[in-house]
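[User]
Protein folding is very new to me. Any chance you could explain this protein sequence and its structure tokens? I have pasted everything here:
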Amino acid sequence: MSSLAMETNTGETRIHPTAVVDSRAQIDLGVEIGPYAVVGPEVCIGAGSRIGPHVVLDGRVRMGRGNRIFPGACIGAEPQDLKYNGASTEVVIGDDNAIRECVTINRATHDGEQTRIGSGNLLMAYSHLGHNCLLGDRIVIANGVAVAGHVVIGDRAIIGGVLGIHQFVHIGTMAMVGGMSRIDRDVPPYAIVEGHPGRLRGLNRIGIKRSGLAELDGGAQAKQLQQVWAELYRSDAVLADALQQVRQQTLLPPAEILVSFLEASIGPGRRGPLPAGRS
């Protein structure tokens, strides 16, 4: 496709002459597409997004507004899954994400399925999201992280660099995972995890404070969360029994989120939560 520049009230859409953009792609106002980028026929790019040099957007990709895709990223390619048989699947991306150099994001495996990313996320260079992953909002994934298929990551989680996350793992909201860890089981909300294999090291107190959670209800929500954490992980009770004991009280929202996550994690079809490390 030849160079395109359209004057609009919301900005100028710019497509570099060397970019290959299929005429059936949907390009909103104010989008910039850099040199040698490739945009396939089933791609939708939201207003104000910037697609860097040598980016490949392949397959069905629906992208919201204000996203920044850095050089060499590849989004929407076929999943690295032997069960994939050419099904019509997609990648859906929200608004205002930064997807850095050489990130790869695969579409889902079976008909009607999606790989989904929320809004305001930062995926650093050379990270990989496998098929059917579901990411929330305001997540940070550092350089060189390999996220296998069907992983779920909650809002405001922080994933340190150069680590692997096993397929079907769930990582809760506001969890922090230390770099070079091995994550083969679920990471509870608000937790800090580190090690090879990964082990729970305590609550993410700094993240809780920065989020403003520590100030809610005069600090009552954070205080109860800390008390519940102690009952679950500092007693001699089996986790399932400790969860039943905790359920005897009225839980405020953060503690409810933690307890509900753990109840689901020990249920059928899940990998179970990571154990606590030694003090």
Q: What stands out?
A: The first helix runs from residue 205 to 211. Confidence is low (pLDDT under 50) at residues 1-9. The longest strand covers residues 4-8.
